[in-house]
Amino acid sequence: MSANVVAEEKEACQAKITNKVAIVTGSGRGIGRAIAEALLAQGARVVISDINEETCNNTAQELKDLGGGTLSCVCNVTQSESVEAMVAKVMEKWGQIDILVNNAGITRDNLYMKMTEQEWQAVIDTNLTSAFKVTKPVLKVMSKQRSGRIINIASTTGVHGNFGQVNYAAAKAGLIGFTKTVALEYASRTITANVVAPGFIDTDMTRALGEEIINKFKEKIPLKRMGTPADIAAAVLFFAGAGSYVTGQVLEVNGGLYT
Ligand code: NDP
After folding, report:
1. Shortest-distance Cα residue to atom 3 of ligand 1
2. From CA 165, how far away is CA 108, in angstroms rounded?
3. pLDDT tens sequence across 28-61
4. pLDDT classification of 1: cutoffs 50, 70, 90
5. How close is the Cα of 23 to the center of ligand 1, in Å?
6. Tell me: the pLDDT tens digits for 54-107?
7. Residues 6 or more apart from 88 whose CB is under 8 A from it?
8. Active-site annotation holder among 168, 186, 245, 258
9. Which residues are 191's β-sheet partners?
10. Cβ proximity of 171 and 210 under 8 Å
11. Domains and CATH numbers, the chain
12. 122 CA → ligand 1 middle, Å
């Protein structure tokens, strides 16, 4: 491909994202923040949304001069009222929603026989039921616009399973089924829905596992490194921008580790 063609394609992707309004849940820190930064770099207006008021407001403030600017929306994705208030605030400020990234998530790891119902329910609520709650009011807006991009952040654990994560694997596998169905139901309105499934990414979530486990994982990864939040953001940008003929897909971003 010539340098000209590459430059044209980059420009075309940027044009598709410039000035669009994107909501990224859980974007106060970690992968969500990197996704917000990448969308802003392409010229989008980005809603920084997080349960944690301090990181939410700080991140929105730190990124406010990038792209089309930021809007801070403190939002707990497990609470319908909180979600509806966020959507109302975004519509009041910008009057449109073009991109939704359901990114907020938690882990409560334990071997199945030791896992409590609370650990199960917290993970299902935050990683799966949240997508049901957030996507519905956003789809109402996108349906009227007859366009939209929904990108759900699952995990390779949802595709392959993982020891100690029966709750997380079930939630992320559920998120994949949810996405594929939304893709079918909303294709006629030119709304796409896709999944990015990260492998082992360097954030607070994985740092909590400790150095020994992290090093064991790195050994197993064919590319011999953990992924970065920016690696995940790059995949999200594809679905948000260039990938207009791609829907119902799961893209694993995992350094080649398919287990
Ligand atoms: P982090 O724990 O670093 O960040 C998650 C963010 O989501 C935090 O800001 C957190 O707020 C927020 N959050 C938690 N609960 C809620 C809620 N109820 N409502 C709104 N926001 C909430 O996680 P990562 O950045 O690592 O993960 C982001 C996504 O990527 C998650 O869905 C995760 O499952 C997925 N993922 C991550 C992988 C990894 O290796 N890191 C691998 C595979 C998937 P607070 O600051 O209060 O905790």
Report:
1. 30
2. 8
3. 999 999 999 999 999 999 999 999 999 999 999 9
4. low
5. 15
6. 999 999 999 999 999 999 999 999 999 999 999 999 999 999 999 999 999 999
7. none
8. 168
9. 148
10. no
11. 3-253 (3.40.50.720)
12. 13
